[in-house]
Specification:
Layout (H helix, E strand, L loop, with lengths): L1 H18 L34 H4 L5
Length: 62
């Protein structure tokens, strides 16, 4: 999945930036309620607190 590759690139850049004291933050937006990502680096890719429950992500049940 292209999105997974992009997240891996962003994570790599963020780790490199952290070595020199910079920060990189990434926010991902998707309209797909079933989207799921493998962990990036050693961290899981998580939904925000308001949308973590699948029912809230599915527009047919909201």
């Amino acid at each position: 999945m292209r999105a997974q590759i992009i997240l891996d690139i962003i994570a790599c850049c963020a780790r490199s930036a952290a070595l020199i004291g910079d920060r990189i933050m990434s926010l991902i937006h998707s309209n797909d309620p079933d989207i799921d990502f493998e962990p990036v680096g050693a961290l899981p890719v998580m939904w925000n607190a308001a949308e973590w429950h699948h029912a809230r992500r599915d527009p047919d049940t909201a």
